[in-house]
Specification:
Helix content: 55-70%
Number of strands: 0
Distance between the termini: 56 Å
Number of helices: 19
Largest sheet: none
Strand content: under 5%
């Protein structure tokens, strides 16, 4: 694309994103996990202590703090400067975009992605169900995107790829370890075993910080608590009186899945499964890209874990395989010249279900049918990704603003007074 075209597209993208973000920030409800993530990051930056007093029991460096140090760094800086939740949310989003942009720039310079994906990857953020969790500083979205980009990077720079995967796990969400094990199981070779050393660097740094602050006994206690937490948190509770099928059925019935809309079921249950099976069959028939195989198996394994073994089937916990689904669709469509017309239409069809309006879904499908023979679908996809954001803004116009400038929190964000005034609902205060 010409330089003037790029400038125009960047300007339009930034304008629409900025309008939506600046207006939408106060319209999401205050949420305990936001306060937990923000507080723990502030303490780590100011006191080298990872804790959230009164919110999470267990003291400093407890494994119960499941959002690793990276997700809310921007929010912590925003809070320390402005003492206002509006700016902590804004800075969280800026931090997210900054990290993604830096990784994308590296990938682009090394000819792993093209300029189309630079646009798709930022605009595609708003296709992720519950995308606004990134404003809270929660770890699922950022960590999943870092992990996804590391998949693309692997063939070009294995050491950096493994390092970024480790960052996404130990400084993001530990559950991504499952995806890492799948990927390594498929791709590791004897000559690449040494690159695993780069994987242990982030957790080693983290454990060293714990050792400095708590001593050897504190470190051993943390490791013991971590193992207990790892094997007991988030797994379905076994019921000896029922078979496995009945257990799964009961867990789904008692989870929030029962309240999902048809659109959410389509986006979360049907599309990822269909897409992963499409990729798997494509690999088995053509033996084409090993990345297709890796992505398909990663999606399937995370999909099965979410629906079969996790009892906390919150929608945001599905974002790990949803992010990989959406971003790999966007990556494949950014390289549309390598796709057949059938593949191109299929991927656009899958992607369309992540748009925020039934009308947008319908018109994207119709437009893609009418233009399927065109050499490039970039302008079409770019336009609909922008329209998706515009529609999100339109739908949010009737939302009620939350109070984000809370005096009790300005004085002490870790106080009981801050918690009770910040949260719009009752919260069981934990001990230090």
């Amino acid at each position: 694309m010409r330089k003037t075209t790029n400038i125009y597209l960047i300007a339009v993208s930034l304008l629409i994103i900025s309008i939506h973000i600046l207006d939408f920030i106060p319209k999401i409800n205050n949420f305990e996990d936001e306060l937990i993530a923000l507080t723990s990051h502030i303490f780590l930056l100011t006191e080298l202590e990872f804790k959230a007093p009164f919110l999470i029991a267990g003291g400093s460096f407890t494994p119960a703090l499941t959002t690793g140090f990276n997700s809310s760094v921007g929010g912590a800086f925003g809070w320390l400067i402005f003492k206002d939740f509006y700016f902590s949310r804004l800075f969280n989003f800026i931090w997210l975009v900054l990290e993604i942009s830096l990784i994308n720039f590296y990938l682009y310079k090394n000819k792993i992605i093209n300029v189309k994906f630079l646009y798709y990857s930022i605009l595609g953020l708003f296709c992720i169900p519950l995308w606004y969790n990134s404003l809270y500083g929660l770890g699922e979205i950022l960590s999943s995107i870092i992990f996804f980009n590391s998949l693309l990077l692997y063939e070009k720079n294995k050491k950096l790829s493994i390092f970024l995967m480790s960052i996404s796990i130990f400084f993001g969400k530990f559950i991504i370890l499952l995806s890492f094990l799948v990927f390594i199981g498929i791709n590791i070779k004897k000559q690449n075993v040494k690159s695993i050393l780069y994987f242990v660097t982030p957790p080693t740094i983290w454990l060293f910080i714990i050792f400095i602050k708590t001593g050897l006994s504190g470190l051993l206690n943390y490791l013991n608590e971590f193992v207990i937490f790892l094997f007991g948190h988030g797994l379905s509770k076994s019921d000896s009186s029922s078979n496995f099928y009945q257990e799964v059925k009961n867990n789904i019935a008692m989870s929030e899945i029962a309240d999902w809309s048809y659109a959410t079921i389509m986006r979360t249950s049907l599309v990822p499964l269909a897409f992963s099976l499409f990729l798997l069959s494509k690999f088995l028939l053509k033996k084409s890209s090993k990345t297709d195989l890796s992505v398909s198996i990663i999606i399937i394994i995370n999909y099965l874990y979410f629906y079969l073994f996790s009892y906390q089937k919150y929608l945001r916990y599905s974002q790990i395989f949803l992010v990989i689904t959406i971003f790999y669709l966007l990556y494949l469509l950014s390289n549309e010249e390598k796709l057949s017309n059938f593949e191109k239409f299929t991927f656009i069809l899958f992607l369309s279900f992540y748009l925020s309006s039934e009308l947008l879904i319908f018109f994207l499908i119709i437009c893609s049918i009418l233009n399927y023979k065109k050499k490039s679908m970039f302008i079409l996809l770019f336009t609909f990704l922008l329209l998706n954001i515009a529609n999100l803004q339109y739908e949010s116009m009737t939302y009620v603003n939350s109070n984000l400038n809370i005096y009790e929190c300005r004085n002490n964000i870790s106080s009981v007074e801050c918690i009770t005034n910040y949260l719009p609902y009752e919260y069981k205060i934990g001990g230090k």
